[in-house]
Amino acid sequence: MTQTQTQASQTNTLVLKRHIRAPAERVYRAFLDADALVKWMAPHGFTAKVHHMDPKVGGDFKMSFTNFTTGSSNSFGGKYLELTPNKRIRHTDAFDDPNMPGEMDVTIEFEEGLAGTFVTITQKGIPAQIPVEFANMGWQDSLQLLEQLVVPEIPDDSPEA
Asked: What pLDDT digit, counting tens, does each position of 78-120 carry?
């Protein structure tokens, strides 16, 4: 299992660094493909739905996570500010819930190495109602699921399960 380095600050900022044994192109694509996001983005115990996604600079997205146990849902969305293929994604992120005000700034950086990709995620402006430790726990689950999606190399001619 891949180790993740995490830094949390008192300013509601979270920085995660993780090595993923897959090419940067595949990891980058998993952040911008709606079907892929549904498969890996929601932490354990939640389902995800992409309501809208326009992955271009100036484009926007809307998603929701639903707690599988309780059925309660939180929707959120934002705007893409920067998309540098296989290198960097930067977008805003805000919850629709007025009890979680503010806009987050999320930057995902991809650095290809000899044995995969180093991914650095910086999430600034996490609402005060969400402890940074909870955001970290959610990202840990999500990154584990991301690895399960992008690490396997499955040729086109293999039978589908």
From this structure: 999 999 999 999 999 999 999 999 999 999 999 999 999 999 9
* Burial status of residue 18 (CB atoms within 10 A of its CB: 0-12, 13-18, 19 or more): buried
Q: How far is CA 17 from CA 5, 13, 29, 123, 153, in A?
A: 5, 14, 18, 12, 23
Cβ-based burial of 16 (10 A; exposed 0-12, middle 13-18, buried ≥19): buried
Of the given ranges (8-17, 18-27, 65-74, 133-142), which has the lowest mean pLDDT?
8-17
Transcribe 82-115 into DSSP letters: EEETTTEEEEEEEES-TTS-S-EEEEEEEEEETT
Residue 60 has pLDDT above 60, yes or no: yes
Q: How many residues does the chain have?
A: 161
Which ranges of 1-131 would DSSP assign to H, the alpha helix? 24-32, 34-40
Whose structure tokens read 């299992």? 1
Q: In which order are the strands placed within the sheet that holds 88-95? A: 4-8, 13-20, 116-124, 104-113, 88-95, 73-84, 60-67, 46-53
